[in-house]
User: Which sequence fits this backbone?
């Protein structure tokens, strides 16, 4: 029964994502930013995706099991920062920019994706054949994948991979960068992201 | 009158000359020929073992203390440190100290009769010297004469030489124990004279199961049982009752308290240092992130509660966000009391004590197949009385924890006329912890080593470890043989070995191997958790693999102290490569 409730909420998260993403719902996906619009629309204070070409700063972030280096980051207000995120650990990690509340919201979703096999401790399941389909009635796999990858404020980085994320910070907001895979945030895989005026 | 004998000198170092002189005096030179003894010692301390009175919830009780306190002082070291510890025996009986979970030379392991180590005689001092090859949460305790029952236990924290893979703002040790004023020797005597000494009703249960064998389960229950008369305490859940359950030496009223600021990460190093108790541990309202098991890091995993056996440890991180008091509860399986502590922003704050968890009754599935017929072991199933009348036996197998909502044990007596659904609230099966609806209990399957194993070879040999016993005589054995007449397990250095634990009794046994970690086979391939104690539930089979890379003659035993004392121990011998009998014969 509990499982059912959680599945329902997963479904509602997905439908919210889809509803809030006109480009995706319309079947066209230009630029790849649209599918994460929900976060931006709900949280304009965290800033917005930036253009790597106009980045004023590059910050290298190393992920390990289970911590980030550096442990905290300071950026100037209004800056566009290119984050180069390298996973030197043996587990899958996320680099996610948001408020503490956003991270708290994200964690149950990630836990559910892991429960259903979309994510494992070490990677992302690209071959959907192994997934538990029973839980996903009426949902398109592409939509699922879009939800998995469609947050412009985060990257999922598998062991050995390096990914980039460029972000334009706006006003002075208390932000954190975090890994929201199950148990990681609470055991300390997060850091303060300070915006300096 | 009594002076503190403990002296911790962090960072102290000895001159080489002084060290050699001391080494000579302690007779250690012969132990490590050719080594530069003590030259690198950077942690040095003295610990005296002596009788002491302790006060629990205002009552005074006799105890044995290491280093002047119960529990003994927390020993905090760093991986790579070489530590020197002088232990002086101020008792009038032999003693010993074993460093539980440490990878260590056999003679320093501290188990009398093994690896050339001998008990420390009254008045004598033994000098331990070893280098720390690992990090994590461990503990130390007496390995003699059931002395840990009286207070000889304490925590060891070894900080990693590299970065901690977890981060916490606070770090507390939570040592759980079961204390009694009764002398362990007399407890064991009572158990041997009459295993049901601490528990009425066992004999009736023997009869009950004999009848089950004859008439079948349902018929027996219906035809024979007069539960209200039987006063069944499930003795299979605990041999000994009447304990005070302690957190860091404090009783439930003393209420050990750990402070936090809301939002902080608090690391709790929870150690089951009891003599005989399995605990269900939870902090209602505060989910735990389990980050280590038996001192070894695991992939962080969320749980609301866990059950652990004697000797096991879990490191968890909690993140209380509200400025209120949270209660840490540790309930023994027989629910004969509880250990309690508080996490709060200020001293003196008190959180609610949750209602007592229901006590599980054993299911037929807890019975080893071998006992289903003959029942010569006096199998000790406990059927908890009140709720059994009018029960629909056909439903037994399907009863699960999902339905055990907030059961009030106190109301059991009057349940004879309760609605049928009430029957479902009685948890059946050893595994049932009375987990509240929606809460998640940690299982062994959740444990994944943070770092993959370096040895993925398939075992080339398998050792069957039958957990056996004759309850009527309180004899507990391995493969049917008592320690002293034990079946020795013998492997060669470097061997990859599978241990198959087959629990042929109706009690759970926390099986402890000294000297090496066992990799629990829990469905993982590369990330099997490394354990020094493996809990084997009644009637179940559990397997583990290990790489026999520590040469020595290692104790291998049930960590329930009275089981060990009555014979449930053997030698696990790792012979150096090239010296095994087969190669010598060639």
Assistant:
């Amino acid at each position: 029964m509990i499982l059912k409730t959680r599945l329902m909420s997963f479904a509602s998260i997905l439908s919210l994502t889809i509803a809030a993403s006109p480009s995706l719902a319309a079947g066209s996906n230009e630029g790849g930013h649209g599918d994460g619009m929900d976060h931006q629309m709900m949280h304009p204070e965290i800033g917005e995706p930036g253009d790597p070409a106009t980045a004023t700063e590059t910050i290298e972030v190393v992920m390990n099991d289970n911590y980030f280096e550096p442990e905290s980051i300071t950026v100037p207000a209004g800056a566009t920062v290119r984050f180069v995120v390298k996973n030197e650990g043996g587990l899958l990690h996320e680099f996610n920019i948001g408020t503490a509340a956003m991270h708290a919201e994200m964690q149950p979703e990630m836990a559910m994706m892991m429960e259903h096999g979309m994510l494992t401790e070490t990677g992302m399941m690209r071959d959907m054949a192994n997934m538990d389909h029973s839980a996903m009635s009426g949902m398109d796999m592409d939509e699922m994948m879009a939800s998995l990858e469609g947050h412009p404020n985060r990257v999922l980085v598998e062991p050995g991979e390096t990914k980039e994320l460029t972000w334009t910070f706006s006003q002075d907001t208390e932000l954190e960068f975090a890994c929201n895979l199950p148990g990681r945030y609470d055991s300390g895989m997060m850091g303060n992201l300070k915006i300096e005026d | 009158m009594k002076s503190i004998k403990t002296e911790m000198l962090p960072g102290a170092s000895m001159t080489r000359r002084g060290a050699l002189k001391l080494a000579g005096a302690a007779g250690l030179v012969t132990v490590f020929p050719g080594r530069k003894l003590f030259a690198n010692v950077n942690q040095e301390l003295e610990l005296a073992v002596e009788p002491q009175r302790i006060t629990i919830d205002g009552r005074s009780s006799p105890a044995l203390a290491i280093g002047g306190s119960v529990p003994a002082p927390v020993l905090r070291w760093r991986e790579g440190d070489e530590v020197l510890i002088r232990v002086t025996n101020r008792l009038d009986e032999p003693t010993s100290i074993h460093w539980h979970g440490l990878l260590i030379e056999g003679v320093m392991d501290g188990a009398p009769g093994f690896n050339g180590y001998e008990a420390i005689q009254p008045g004598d001092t033994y000098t331990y010297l070893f280098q720390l090859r690992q990090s994590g949460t461990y503990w130390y305790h007496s390995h003699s004469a059931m002395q840990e029952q009286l207070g000889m236990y304490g925590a060891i924290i070894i900080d990693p030489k590299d970065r901690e893979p977890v981060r916490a703002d606070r770090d507390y040790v939570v040592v759980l124990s079961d204390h009694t004023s009764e002398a362990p020797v007399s407890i064991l005597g009572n158990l041997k004279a009459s295993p049901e000494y601490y528990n009425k009703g066992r004999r009736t249960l023997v009869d009950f199961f004999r009848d089950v064998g004859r008439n079948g389960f349902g018929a027996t229950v219906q035809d024979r049982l007069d539960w209200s008369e039987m006063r069944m305490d499930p003795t299979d859940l605990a041999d000994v009752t009447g304990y005070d359950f302690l957190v860091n030496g404090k009783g439930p009223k003393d209420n050990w308290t750990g402070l936090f600021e809301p939002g902080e990460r608090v690391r709790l190093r929870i150690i089951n240092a009891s003599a005989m108790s399995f605990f269900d541990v939870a902090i209602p309202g505060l989910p735990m992130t389990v980050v280590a098991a038996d001192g070894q890091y695991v992939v962080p995993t969320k749980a609301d509660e866990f059950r652990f056996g004697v000797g096991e440890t879990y490191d968890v991180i909690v993140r209380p966000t509200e400025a209120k008091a949270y209660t840490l509860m540790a309930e023994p399986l027989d629910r004969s009391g509880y250990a309690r502590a508080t996490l709060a922003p200020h001293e003196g704050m008190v959180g609610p004590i949750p209602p007592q968890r229901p006590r599980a009754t054993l299911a037929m599935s807890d019975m080893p197949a071998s006992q289903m017929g003959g029942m010569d072991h006096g199998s000790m199933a406990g059927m908890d009385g009140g709720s059994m009348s009018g029960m629909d036996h056909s439903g037994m197998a399907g009863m699960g924890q999902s339905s055990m909502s907030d059961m009030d044990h106190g109301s059991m007596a009057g349940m004879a006329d309760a609605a049928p659904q009430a029957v479902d609230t009685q948890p059946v099966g050893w595994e049932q912890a009375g987990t509240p609806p929606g809460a998640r209990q940690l299982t062994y399957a959740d444990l994944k080593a943070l770092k993959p194993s370096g040895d993925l070879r398939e075992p080339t040999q398998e050792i069957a470890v039958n957990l056996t016993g004759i309850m009527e005589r309180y004899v507990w054995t391995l493969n049917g043989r008592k320690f002293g007449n034990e079946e020795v397990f013998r492997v060669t250095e470097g061997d990859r070995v599978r241990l198959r634990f087959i629990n042929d009794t109706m009690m759970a046994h926390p099986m402890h191997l000294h000297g090496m970690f066992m990799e629990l086979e829990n469905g993982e391939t590369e990330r099997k958790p490394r354990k020094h104690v493996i809990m084997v539930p009644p009637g179940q089979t559990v397997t583990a693999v290990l790489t026999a890379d520590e040469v020595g003659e290692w104790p291998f035993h049930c960590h329930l102290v009275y089981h060990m004392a009555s014979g449930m121990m053997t030698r696990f011998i790792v012979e150096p490569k090239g010296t095994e009998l087969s190669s010598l014969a060639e």
About this structure: The CA atoms of residues 494 and 549 of chain B lie 5 Å apart.
